[in-house]
Amino acid sequence: MLSSGLTLIFSMMGVLNFAHASFYMVGAYAAYTLTGVIGFTASLVVSPLLVGALGALFERTALRRVHKFGHVPELLITFGLSYVVGEVVALVWGRSPLTFDPPLWLQGPAFTIVQSAVRGLSVVAGAAPAELCSGVGDACTRFPMTRAFMALVALGMLASLWLLLTRTRIGLVIQAALTHPEMAEALGHNVPRVFMLVFGSGCALAGLAGVIGGVTFVTEPNMANIGPIIFAVIVIGGMGSLSGAFVGSLVVGLLQTLPLTVDANGVDVFRHLGLAIGPDSPLFPLLRIKLSETAQILPYLMLVLILIFRPKGLLGTRES
Amino acid sequence: MHHTSENQPNFHFKPWNVGRILIWGLYALVLLVAPLLWTSSFAQTMLSQMGIAIIVCLAYNILLGQGGMLSFGHAVYSGLGSFLAIHALNKVGAGSLGLPVSLVPLVGGLGGLLFAALLGYVSTKKAGTTFAMITLGVSELVWSMSLMLPEFFGGEGGVSANRVVGEKVLGISFGPQIQVYYLIAIYCFICTAAMFALTRTPLGRILNAVRDNPERVEFIGYSTRRVRYLAFMISGFFAGISGGLAAVNFEIVTAEVVGAARSGAYLLFVFLGGATFFFGPILGAVLMVIALVLLSELTKAWLLYLGLVFLLMVMYAPGGLASLLMMNLRLAAFGKLRRLWVAYLALGGIGLAALTGVAAMIEMLYHMQLNAALGPQLKFMGAQLNTHGVDSWAGAIFLTLTGAALFELTRRHFQAQWGEIQEDIEKEIKRREAIST
């Protein structure tokens, strides 16, 4: 869910931003520091703005300069930035994970699914009373508040972005500036500024995702490693498509989590078919891998397959 | 440039290209003499690594510089070549494969070619940004696979081998590092020559055309995709050779050789060296080994410096070091370099001062972050800095700000002068053309 929010603007920008995950990380770290000063709720607003300002500054000083050279230098400069940001973050905040705890109102479960032997399935808001879970044959599944909050923010972000881009004048100008820059320029819009603002807001969204990701997961210098998976999300969903980013994130999320529940491997499949497979059979090492172990590579496999068979992505509008 | 006009008799006389022979001779000489000048075993290890890096960087540049393909996963081909080579080496050691050790890198090359043929078929379907993303995806795929297949990749510990195996050929056992160095040097020279020759073939030329204007290439009847695919395979082959040499050199291959960090390093240094010129990646490769081995010893912040240098390079000198060098060579050829040396001195001196200020601050920050237990004092370029003292910080900030301001002033002056000289050179070229026709 998180990457859906993260990718939205990103896929609109037309510039592949390798440093996007870095902005995500900066968002988390900035929020960590600001929480100590102005509290979490305020930093939830301030640190995305801060990250957005940084992003706009980068666009203004560096990215704009190489824009005329074409796509490759654009990619390269964001790639270089990701190195620098990673090091600067490690420099300022250290290399070990920080304890960035969610505020009180985000701690604890959002709701609990109670599976009772007597009353069947039911859902209780907040933490379920202990007596409901302790009975024989009872089981409680707690859904953490942070995740619920994350889903809520992601959906809110998606909805407002969609409204902004498709239903308002600002969205019209942005779309025009991205697809027909000369024409938009001729109509009197300041295209470079539009680019700067779009890039800035993309980074701000990454920062917002970072704040929430920071409290939900860990805040550490390695958290920028989600970069490649975001690419997978965008490509699978389709570049330049908001709904595609949403679908892509769902697909990738499912691909990453569903195989974890299956504990079978290729050997079992052949055994079902009546073929005996031993350690001496050809390709045994490949067949031995459990499906649950492949969860790591499935998004990338999907990425490559999508690029071969449907380069537009699932819901894409633009080709490459 | 020679202009042959119609009325001249159809008679070709091809003089020896003295310049080219001189350059290649020098290159061979450097490869030959380098280990005799730096005789310590550390230097020889570094020289060996440089040779390996030169091959892989040149191979990468077939894609980046000559084909305009930005690959984020080139370590896959050199890395897989490495693994195949080390398995071959183990087989030779076990006696089940009768192959002299000197040919083991070729196994790596063939492995690289094989995987490039397999994975490149997918990657080269698209160009531009999509190509970059596919290579990224493929690289992540192979990286994840490397953890899943411990039989082939050796898990965390990697695969190790012994290179002193098999029959001795001409008394060479590859035990001492110097013998391995010369093996690498020979491969390096042959590969460099082969890759240079490639740029002169129709394939190499059409590859440049694919980079510059794919539509026209399609128009004249070539499949841009097939050209990219061929280039990709050739690049994979040479990358595999360098991987095989690395396997022989280190006698151990771990899964990190296929990792994204390695691919990133190739990209970074080929670009820093200069992708637009053939010899740029050679500079980049030498820089890469120096940076990875020496710089990381010297300072903890080396990755930060590297990133900053890269950013500045992309912004101000997209041609890399090689293009800076060639621009100044052009000035020298027209005898204008003398006019600039004062400006260069000023720029260099002031820039160095500003950099010293920045570096002092970075070093102090790193010191506070990592070595706080050792006390607030640190040595930086012979000076004692105190991370808690106001004077050190104020000094560093003052140095940086004044340096940056002065640098900007000199840079403007320099830029004006540079433009003037370039105009003069253009005029001179026009004049010479007018005389020669």
SSE layout and pairing:
The complex is a heterodimer of chains A (320) and B (437).
Chain A: H1 2-13, H2 20-38, H3 40-67, H4 71-93, E1 109-116, E2 120-125, H5 130-134, E3 139-144, H6 145-167, H7 169-179, H8 181-186, H9 191-216, H10 227-237, H11 242-257, H12 266-272, H13 284-288, H14 298-309
Antiparallel strand pairs in A: 1-2, 1-3
Helix pairs in contact in A: 1-6, 1-9, 1-10, 1-11, 2-3, 2-4, 2-9, 3-4, 3-9, 6-7, 6-9, 7-9, 10-11, 10-14
Chain B: H1 18-37, H2 41-67, H3 75-94, H4 104-123, H5 128-148, H6 150-153, E1 159-160, H7 177-200, H8 202-212, H9 214-219, H10 224-250, E2 252-253, H11 260-273, H12 280-298, H13 302-316, H14 320-333, H15 337-370, E3 377-380, E4 383-386, H16 390-436
Description:
The complex is a heterodimer of chains A (320) and B (437). Chain A has 320 residues and is mainly alpha-helical. In chain A, 64% of the residues lie in helices and 6% in strands. Chain A has helices at 2-13, 20-38, 40-67, 71-93, 130-134, 145-167, 169-179, 181-186, 191-216, 227-237, 242-257, 266-272, 284-288, 298-309; strands spanning 109-116, 120-125, 139-144. Chain A has a three-stranded antiparallel β-sheet. In chain A, helix 1 (2-13) packs parallel to helix 6 (145-167), helix 2 packs parallel to helix 4 and helix 3 (40-67) packs antiparallel against helix 4. Chain A is globular. Chain B has 437 residues and is mainly α. In chain B, helix 1 (18-37) packs antiparallel against helix 7 and helix 3 (75-94) packs across helix 10 (224-250). Classes of the chains: A mainly alpha (320), B mainly alpha (437). Chain A binds chain B through residues 16, 62, 65-66, 69, 71-73, 75-77, 79-81, 83-84, 86-88, 90-92, 94, 228, 231-232, 235, 285-286, 289, 293-294, 296-297, 300-301, 303-304, 307-308, 311, 320, and chain B through 68, 70, 122, 125-126, 128-130, 132-134, 136-138, 140-141, 144-145, 147-149, 151-152, 260, 264, 267-268, 271, 301, 303-304, 306-308, 310-311, 314-315, 318, 362, 365-366, 369.
